[in-house]
Amino acid sequence: MQIRVKKLVQNKIVRLESLGDVKEIFLNEDLMHPERESVSLCFKGNNSSGIVDLSPAEIEKLYRTVQDRMHLIKGFKRLSGSGAVLL
Questions:
Q1: pLDDT for the residue numbered 12
Q2: Tally of domains within the chain
Q3: Which residue, 2, 12, 38, 68, has most beta carbons within 10 Å?
């Protein structure tokens, strides 16, 4: 996984790049507040680590964007019915 971030620091744009592996994926459910559900991608590299939180709407948008081009990605499995993808 490669992360690229632009951040405004003291009126200057700083670009950060890092490589890492996805270590865990959490599905955060909240029965009392379903609008707070999210998917957390936890990653760790040599010099960095972090968590990327995505809402269900962002996951759906990402999936719709790549679904027609999934045949181009080698080495993935689609879990039946869920739309989830394992690389």
A1: 95
A2: 1
A3: 38
